[in-house]
Amino acid sequence: MRVFRLILVFALVFAAFVYSDEARAQRCPEVFSKTVAERTVGEHQGTRDLIVTADFDGDGEPDRAFFARIGDGISLFACLHGHARAFKLTEVSSVSGLGIQPADPGVYHHLCLRGVGPDCRPGQKLRWELENPAVHFITYEKASSIFYWEGDRFERFWTSD
Questions:
Q1: What does DSSP assign to residue 40?
Q2: Rounded distance, CA 3 to CA 17, Å?
Q3: Contact, 80 vs 65, CB < 8 A?
Q4: CA geometry: angle at 26 spanning 65 and 71, to 5°?
Q5: Are 78 and 68 spatial neighbours (Cβ–Cβ below 8 Å)?
Q6: How many helices (H) and strands (E) does the chain have?
Q7: What is the DSSP letter of 59?
């Protein structure tokens, strides 16, 4: 009887680990549906320009990017289909002057091409060609950048577009 209980406990612990991987895989859509940040005042009320769905990693499956309120802060997250976690792209203090839109594959120019930007330095890559859709992060009437999937993480490219 003791051996049976030991085997049962082992099987339950093993099942919990296997289930937790599956549960984590489902966690991102759960976070998405429960914590999406919304604007309550201003020109862009609701979730307009706060959610993007596109195939960021080129696997043929839809992925999502969204602003989510986690605790006291708001962050921009991306969830890739089949990945067990959300990728935190950046933190923001408010979504009132921000938005995201899909960035279609194509050529984009770096902000340094105009001689301004946070990362301007000799040898800076001034042109970037996106192979897959990406997340165009916009500060209305100011700067913008693109978060794109590169290998196993998201990278950021400041744009002049």
A1: -
A2: 21
A3: no
A4: 60
A5: no
A6: 1, 10
A7: S
pLDDT tens digits, the chain, 161 residues: what are they?
665 554 544 444 444 433 333 333 345 656 555 566 565 555 555 667 888 999 999 999 999 898 887 778 888 999 998 877 789 999 998 888 888 999 999 998 877 766 555 567 766 677 888 999 999 999 888 878 999 999 999 999 888 65
16: buried, middle or exposed (CB in 10 Å: 19+, 13-18, 0-12)? exposed
Residue type, 112: C
- Closest by Cα among 136, 148, 153, 35 to 87: 153
Residue in this structure with the two tokens 């612990």, named with its chain if needed: 13
The total number of residues shown for the chain amounts to 161
Query: 17: which 2 tokens?
Result: 């680990």
